[in-house]
Design a protein that fits this description.
The chain has 150 residues and is an alpha+beta fold. It folds into 2 domains: 76 residues; 42 residues, no CATH class. The protein is built from 3 helices and 5 strands. It is rod-shaped, with a radius of gyration of 33 Å. It starts with 8 loop residues before the first helix and ends with a strand.
């Protein structure tokens, strides 16, 4: 309703009539001043509602983002905890009973295989690992490319 008058057009027309033609007339409980005062109150409440809706909308988005972040952290935490509990059967059993909702799991990485250039490359060292061309993995965002020769 932002930018739009929350008062119906016929009511606005009636307020105008009370302001113009009926300015000197007062009916029991109804005159121009009272109608104008109520119209101001309606506009104030409409403004408050619009602000509240905007706040709910923006806060709702932040809430969903926080939930996604927590859910992804929970997935990672559960995976680490299960590895840690490998030698502790009681803890492993407790962790096994935890079933996170599907929405908690991050989307799977997309794998694309493409043929590498025909020119052979020498093995490269990446982050302390030697990677042969036939096994080269390139991570870009959430996309992993596997380059294979031949």
């Amino acid at each position: 309703m932002i930018g739009q008058d929350p008062i119906a057009l016929p009511v606005l027309e009636l307020i105008d009539v009370f302001r113009d033609e009926l300015s000197s007339v007062s009916f029991p409980g109804v005159d121009h001043a009272m109608l104008e005062s109520l119209a101001v109150e309606v506009r104030e409440h409409a403004t408050e509602v619009a602000r509240a809706r905007a706040l709910v909308e923006s806060t709702g988005g932040a809430l969903e983002e926080s939930r996604r972040t927590l859910a992804h952290a929970a997935v990672r935490g559960l995976a680490y905890a299960r590895v840690y509990a490998d030698s502790d059967s009681v803890l492993a059993q407790r962790l096994a009973s935890i079933a996170l909702p599907e929405t908690a799991h991050p989307p799977p990485l997309e794998l694309r295989v493409r043929k590498a250039e025909t020119k052979p490359r020498s093995p490269r060292r990446k982050r302390g690992l030697v990677v042969a061309d036939s096994e080269l993995l390139r991570v870009e965002g959430d996309v992993v490319e596997l380059e294979a020769t031949g």
